[in-house]
């Protein structure tokens, strides 16, 4: 069954966690080499691979005399600056030994939030693939701050999967997959081979991060799988420290946990609005307009807005919230804050007389609007 699920795969994103290629002392060159050789075998089979690699901070912290996880942003940035050169050099040496080439692509949340820069990043990745070069993507930790962080490379890998139109996301972790309970605490814990949908019950199984090397845990991997599913892409979480694990995956072996794609997928643009573009403000929507957006698939008109919070310009993403402030959608707004304050609660045929001009009847067009859930909870906390 597993082999049939992967039969369509031509382009794959492989995310390598820090726990796979590093330990408390720094980078494990032998593990990096083994995983890289695994990937080169996929390339030899004609697959296209985009690599999202953690490990830069772990690779560089030793030269700063840091043990454990760096405690300050400057420490992390310095460690990343040192480690990124080392990790790319080691990838390059292994790939070139197998007659393959790699390229480094460093991104921040801002790069994917801005539509033009998002498309530029996409064009770069696609061009590299056309030339048979494997992009190695990482967050640009040397300059990133909290406001523009992806949060973790699991999240980044899901966004890259959408950006690159990949057919599969493989997350290489230091565990075998998702268990029905914590295997460190319960010897009877069972590995779950297939997950049809990442429900709240499944998310509860993720627990919290336990590593002092990486920034994520199983919970961030489940969020990544959920986001990839909304792109119509399946996700595999497997143990990256197992020998020839990628070969086992594409041989159809029943390894790890496979998360099925969602039955109803978001378009690439709506996925970008939901997960890549950072919202800049909130619109409070009355009950009638909320029902029209959620249940009737309507655009948002000015008459349905009963309040505004935050600052935004025309073309920014905003949150749509009910009267209690609970978000239910996001969208690209067609009017600035100043304009919205003047026309909110008004009818469409009043817009031109109030402003002296009119872009559209809709404040947010349905094509630029996506319904959201608690999937975006971590972004709310960072705003």
Annotation keywords:
Carbamate kinase; Archaeosine Trna-guanine Transglycosylase, Chain: A, domain 4; 16 helices; 19% strand; eight-stranded mixed sheet; five-stranded mixed sheet
Number of strands: 15
Number of helices: 16
Oligomer: single chain
Q: What percent of the residues sit in helical stretches (DSSP H or I)?
A: 25-40%
Portion in beta strands? 15-25%
How many strands, which pairing sense, and closed or not: the largest β-sheet?
Answer: 8 strands, mixed
Fourth CATH level, the homologous superfamily of the largest domain? Acetylglutamate kinase-like
Give start-end ranges of low-pLDDT stretches: 209-215, 374-383
Bulk shape: globular
Number of domains: 2
**Per CATH, what is the topology of the largest domain?**
Carbamate kinase
Whole-number mean pLDDT? 88
Radius of gyration: 22 Å
CATH first level of the largest domain: which class? Alpha Beta
Distance between the termini: 43 Å
Largest sheet, spatial ordering of strands: 5-6-4-1-7-9-10-8
**Structure class:** alpha/beta
Q: Quickly give the CATH architecture of the largest domain.
A: 3-Layer(aba) Sandwich
């Amino acid at each position: 069954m597993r082999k049939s699920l992967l039969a369509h795969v031509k382009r794959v994103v492989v995310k390598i966690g820090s726990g796979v290629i590093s330990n408390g002392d720094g980078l494990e060159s032998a593990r990096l080499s083994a995983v890289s050789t695994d990937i080169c075998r996929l390339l030899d089979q004609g697959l296209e691979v985009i690599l999202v690699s953690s490990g830069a901070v772990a690779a560089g912290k030793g030269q700063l005399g840091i043990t454990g996880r760096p405690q300050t942003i400057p420490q992390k940035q310095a460690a990343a600056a040192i480690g990124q050169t080392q990790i790319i050099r080691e990838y390059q040496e292994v790939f070139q030994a197998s007659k393959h080439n790699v390229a480094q692509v460093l991104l921040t949340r801002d790069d994917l939030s801005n539509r033009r820069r998002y498309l530029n990043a996409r064009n770069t990745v696609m061009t590299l693939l056309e030339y048979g070069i494997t992009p190695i993507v990482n967050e640009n930790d040397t300059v990133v701050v909290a406001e523009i962080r992806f949060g973790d490379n699991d999240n980044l890998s899901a966004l890259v999967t959408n950006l690159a139109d990949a057919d599969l996301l493989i997350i290489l972790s230091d565990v075998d997959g998702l268990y029905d309970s914590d295997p460190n605490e319960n010897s009877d814990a069972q590995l779950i081979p297939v997950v049809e949908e990442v429900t709240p019950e499944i998310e509860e199984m993720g627990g919290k991060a336990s590593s002092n090397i990486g920034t994520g845990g199983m919970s961030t991997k489940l969020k990544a799988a959920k986001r990839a599913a909304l792109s119509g892409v399946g996700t595999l979480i497997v143990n990256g420290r197992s020998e020839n694990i990628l070969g086992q995956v594409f041989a159809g072996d029943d390894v790890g946990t496979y998360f099925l794609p969602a039955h109803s997928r978001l378009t690439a643009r709506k996925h970008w609005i939901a997960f890549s573009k950072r919202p800049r403000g909130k619109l409070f929507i009355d009950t009638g307009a909320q029902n029209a957006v959620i249940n009737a698939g309507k655009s948002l008109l000015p008459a349905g807005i009963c309040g505004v919070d935050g600052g935004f310009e025309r073309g920014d993403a905003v949150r749509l919230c009910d009267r209690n402030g609970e978000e239910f959608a996001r969208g690209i707004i067609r009017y600035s804050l100043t304009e919205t304050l003047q026309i909110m609660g008004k009818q469409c045929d009043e817009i031109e007389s109030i402003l002296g001009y009119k872009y559209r009847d809709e404040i947010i067009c349905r094509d630029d609007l996506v319904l959201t859930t608690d999937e975006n909870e971590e972004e709310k906390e960072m705003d």
